[in-house]
Amino acid sequence: MLSYLELVELDNGDIVLQRSEGDENPLVTIKFSKETRDHIVGSALDVARAMVQAGIEAAAMSAGSEGFDEDDDEDDQELESKIVH
Fold first, then answer.
1. Which stretch of DSSP H or E encloses residue 64?
2. What are the boundaries of each domain within the chain?
3. Which residues of 71-83 are buried (b: 16+ CB within 10 A; e: fewer)?
4. What is the CA radius of gyration of the chain?
């Protein structure tokens, strides 16, 4: 069964990454300070989305860099296929 993920802004201002089925345990919780929330009014979900995407890309690059040989084109293609956009 395919599981989708969603970003949800909670009543307290926290943003959680959770399974769309509504699992009570979020995968990631992002808490912005009041000062930060004041500066990003209306775009907290966009900022959170960028943060999650950057984290996924960093994790994919880290996982792909183990045993990575810069001279091997096959490794380059394998790394690119692991990056989620």
1. helix 44-65
2. 5-82
3. eeeeeeeeeeeee
4. 16
Contacting residues for 7 by C-beta, under 8 A, at least 6 apart: 15, 16, 17, 45, 48, 49, 52
> Tens digit of pLDDT for each residue in 8-67?
999 998 999 999 887 678 999 999 999 998 998 889 999 999 999 999 899 888 887 665
- Report the alpha-carbon distance of residue 18 to residue 25 in Å, rounded: 7
pLDDT in tens, 54-85: 998 998 888 876 654 555 455 455 545 555 54
Q: Residue 16: name the closest of 3, 31, 2, 1 by CA.
A: 31
Distance CA 48, CA 5 (A): 13
Q: Residue 11 and residue 55: Cα distance in Å, rounded?
A: 24
